[in-house]
């Protein structure tokens, strides 16, 4: 496995919520982050039907644009009673003509569960795939998961995306009710980062 050496890493994301979590996850290793969003890089279109496919698109796009190694995160929530939806299309469910609306996306998620009369608890997993890519085309892939259930109504105003309707197993709080420190101990993203750190940073 190829090691990353450096104290600054380009993160190929335009999502500020993700970026804040990633910055905190890398802080203990003495690595600062810069994001594709902050660098003004374009957002490539995520045309693949898998998390790894889309993470590869984002990581390789950023590394080719800059000549620097780049880390991408592709993530989403897969709901058992919806045959794994929204999954890779989690962000798409929030799209509106004027930008993303996660309140709408969470309401849509619950409506779909009601429409199929899904049994309780409404099982789901958050998934995160990380791809660390180098300018010569090499990459390394790491996957993380956090099982739990979809709950309603929304609870909590911390975090981002679908956090207010996801209650991870073993906790009474939703991700939206956890502070970033607590979420970063247990999340799908933390799980993937543990593997990334073990493989590429040590
Ligand atoms: O911890 C999370 N807590 C709540 N929601 C989350 C989380 N992790 C991913 N999500 C949701 C947000 C987004 O709607 C989708 C990921 O889509 P995804 O394409 O990977 O990210 P994105 O478009 O927001 O940013 P970017 O592609 O620039 O990294 O899943
Ligand atoms: Mg995206």
Task: Write up this protein.
It holds the Pfam family Ham1p_like. One of its GO terms (biological process) is nucleotide metabolic process. The protein has 202 residues and is α/β, with parallel strands linked by helices. The chain has a single domain, classed as Alpha-Beta Complex (Maf protein). It is 31% helix and 24% strand. The chain contains 5 helices and 8 strands, in the order E-H-E-H-E-E-E-H-E-E-E-H-H. The strands form 2 sheets. Strands 2-1-3-6-7-8 form a 6-stranded mixed sheet. A two-stranded antiparallel ribbon has the order 4-5. Strand 4 and strand 5 (99-100) form a beta hairpin. The longest helix has 16 residues, at 51-66. The chain binds 2'-deoxyinosine 5'-triphosphate and magnesium ion. Magnesium ion (MG) is lined by residues 46, 91.
Topology:
Layout: E1 8-11, H1 16-26, E2 32-35, H2 51-66, E3 70-79, E4 95-96, E5 99-100, H3 102-115, E6 122-133, E7 139-150, E8 166-168, H4 180-186, H5 188-201
Parallel strand pairs: 1-2, 1-3
Antiparallel strand pairs: 3-6, 4-5, 6-7, 7-8
Helix pairs in contact: 4-5
Bound molecules: 2'-deoxyinosine 5'-triphosphate and magnesium ion.
């Amino acid at each position: 496995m190829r090691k990353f050496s450096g104290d600054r890493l380009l993160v190929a994301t335009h999502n500020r919520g993700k970026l804040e979590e990633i910055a905190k996850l890398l802080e203990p290793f003495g690595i600062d982050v810069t994001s594709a969003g902050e660098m003004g890089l374009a957002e490539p279109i995520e045309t693949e039907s898998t998390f790894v496919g889309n993470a590869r698109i984002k990581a390789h796009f950023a590394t080719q644009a800059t000549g620097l190694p780049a880390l991408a995160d592709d993530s989403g929530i897969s709901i058992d009673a919806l045959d794994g939806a929204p999954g890779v299309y989690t962000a798409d469910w929030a799209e509106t003509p004027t930008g993303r609306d996660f309140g709408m996306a969470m309401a849509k998620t619950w409506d779909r569960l009601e429409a199929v009369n899904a049994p309780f608890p409404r099982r789901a997993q958050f998934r995160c795939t990380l791809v660390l890519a180098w300018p010569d085309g090499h990459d390394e892939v790491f996957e993380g998961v956090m099982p739990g259930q979809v709950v309603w109504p929304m609870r909590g105003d911390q975090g981002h995306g679908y956090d207010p309707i996801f209650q991870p197993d073993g906790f009474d709080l939703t991700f939206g009710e956890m502070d970033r420190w607590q979420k970063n101990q247990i999340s799908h993203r933390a799980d993937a980062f543990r593997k990334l750190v073990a493989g590429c940073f040590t």
